[in-house]
Amino acid sequence: MAQPDNFETQQKRQSLIAAVVIGLLLSNVSLALRLWARLRILKRLRKEDWFMIVGLFLSYGTVVCLLYGKLGLLNHNRWSQLTINRAVHGSRRTVQQFNTG
What we know:
The protein has 101 residues and is an all-alpha fold. Helix content is 76%, strand content 0%. It has 4 helices and no strands. It has helices spanning 9-41, 47-70, 76-89, 95-100. α1 (9-41) runs antiparallel to α2.
């Protein structure tokens, strides 16, 4: 039977952010070293090198989605409440009016 961990939500977020940043740093360094070696030895890049560059940029998109979506770095609560208020009550209040009361 799995035992529950003793980490709080903030500790989990910090650990996840640290892991993502370290992973991106390692992937950037490894790609940079690979490209440097390829250019130094072969004097050109091959097809797989270009695919790795595209893959690295796609991983940036994944990280952005992870940090903004999963970790809740954007405050979705106010927007959700504003949308619910509009749907239920037909209100046209702005976000500033919603925040003030």
